[in-house]
Write a structure and sequence with these properties.
The chain is an alpha+beta fold. The protein contains 18 helices and eleven strands. The protein has two domains: about 160 residues, no CATH class; about 290 residues, no CATH class. The two termini are about 20 Å apart.
């Protein structure tokens, strides 16, 4: 009987079902978006503690270093900077300098609660690049000084980062999957270096030049020793003109490598190989193998540390690390022998704590959840309101029909079953649409959001769907009971 009552008003049934479906779908989609866009998914991937060398006082005065990440979106690498090697090392430009000193590393190892197996050290060195004119042509020849032998030497300090075997394998897979023209064999064997950039080769002409640069010679000069750097400062401050005109201090040179190519780390599917400070237009950033680094006459330094702590001991570890860094930075501020600015100490250590980021973003994230949650509930209620309007309007127009049914012997129980069955048709139609059209919509949203937001995390809305189904049954029971009571 209830099926006949539904088919008498097909248009009303279809419109009402679609209205409820759109409200329910909007509610579920809002839940998916609210949970998937939550910053916590991105922050959870971050190390508990990120340690790197601070920029010099000169660099910090220009706004580079520790404050840049605070003004950017949370999914941007906090060590991406516009500052170059000069602004980074202005107060620390000597070969023995390590952003994370060996003494500090040993003290960190003594802290109870750091999981060193899950932690990561980014190692390498700061150097001066000497490359063939053809090799550097894709990037910017203006960054280099010409020499007599058709090689160009940089006037900023560059970074060489050591890769382990697993990282090189991930690069090989990336290059193969994208069919890129990169000489990774030379990198792996220790005979070549790979130049990494942040979306610097945008025109096709530059990419063509990058392909032609593969195999070009490149070698590195080390920074001055600390002793020579101090003598250079003394010479610079000397009033003796003859002393100021002395020859430059000698720099050690590495063996000659071949350039393996240029890779853009900003590509979406680039392997997850974290870097130290990078992105400055006037500095170059290289990947090198452990074998290759041994050909550079310098000791490897810890450029960056990514530390993971036991969750239960995180507050204690945080306090201990901050105390050590405070002590280290105080000592460095008193080391004024190298900096060309009189009275300025060496740059210290910079730290980002994940717990601090979570706390800073918590208010914003809570506001987003409340706002999007309220919108989704309103959309859900809008669909149900339309259903209730149709049902209650139908109740008043069918009063005479109900009276006739009761007069011929229909009991209250039969009346309830009939009305519940009519309501069930609506909700069965909604559930059917949800598991067909709704599923397609969810897949579409998943694909779109994952392409737009790197930190978007999709979860099938199982709990939301079950909650909606339970709510629809409950509403049907309540509406049926109310109508029977009124009739």
């Amino acid at each position: 009987m209830h099926g006949g009552n539904i088919t008498r008003h097909k248009a009303r049934f279809i419109i009402t079902s679609i209205s409820i479906f759109l409200g329910v779908l909007s509610f579920i989609l809002m839940n998916v978006l609210t949970n998937g866009c939550d910053y916590k998914h991105l922050l959870e991937k971050r190390p508990d503690f990120l340690l790197a060398g601070e920029f010099s006082e000169f660099g910090k005065s220009l706004g580079y270093g520790g404050e840049e990440y605070k003004t950017r979106e949370i999914d941007v690498d906090p060590l991406l900077t516009q500052g170059d090697g000069v602004e980074l090392l202005y107060d620390n430009d000597y070969d023995e300098f390590s952003p994370i000193s060996q003494k500090l590393e040993k003290k960190l190892h003594k802290i109870d609660g750091i999981d060193w197996e899950k932690s990561n050290l980014i190692e390498g060195a700061y150097v001066t690049t000497v490359m063939s004119r053809k090799g550097i042509r894709p990037y910017d020849e203006g960054l280099f000084n010409l020499t007599d032998d058709n090689m160009v030497e940089g006037f900023s300090w560059d970074t060489v980062q050591i890769l382990n075997d697993n990282q090189i394998l991930s690069l090989e897979k990336y290059v193969q999957d994208n069919q890129l023209n990169i000489d990774l064999k030379s990198l792996e064997e220790g005979n070549g270096v790979l130049l990494i950039h942040d979306h610097m080769l945008t025109p096709p002409e530059q990419q063509k030049l990058a392909d032609e640069a593969i195999g070009e010679p490149v070698y590195f000069k080390t920074l001055l020793s600390r002793e020579d750097a101090i003598r250079r400062k003394e010479q610079s401050n000397s009033e003796n003109k003859e002393k100021q005109q002395e020859d430059e201090f000698p720099q050690k040179e590495s063996e000659t490598f071949t350039l393996c190519g240029y890779l853009d780390r900003q590509n979406d599917d680039f392997p997850e190989i974290n870097q130290s400070w990078h992105g400055g237009e006037c500095s170059l950033y290289y990947f090198i193998s452990e074998k290759g680094f041994q050909k550079i006459p310098t000791e490897k330094k810890i450029l960056t540390m990514e530390l993971t702590a036991d969750p239960e001991k995180e507050p204690y570890v945080k306090t201990q690390i901050n105390e050590l860094i405070s002590e280290e930075n105080k000592k460095r501020s008193e080391m004024t022998e190298v900096s060309m600015d009189e009275g300025t100490g060496e740059a210290g250590v910079f730290i980002i704590c994940k717990s601090d980021l979570m706390q800073q973003k918590e208010t914003y994230m809570r506001g987003n959840r409340i706002l999007l949650g309220a919108v989704s509930i309103i959309l859900f209620i809008a669909g149900l309101t339309n259903y209730c309007n149709v049902v209650f309007t139908g109740m008043y127009t069918r009063r005479k029909e109900f009276d006739i049914m009761k007069s011929i012997g229909m009991t209250d129980k039969q009346m309830k079953l009939m009305l519940f069955g009519e309501g069930s048709y609506y909700f069965m139609c909604v559930i059917g649409l949800l598991f067909t059209v709704g599923m397609a919509a969810l897949v579409g949203v998943k694909i779109y959001m994952e392409n737009k937001l790197s930190y978007f995390t999709f979860h099938w809305p199982i709990l939301s769907t079950v909650g909606v189904m339970f709510s629809l049954v409950l509403i049907n029971v309540v509406v049926t009971h109310f109508i029977c009571k009124k009739t």
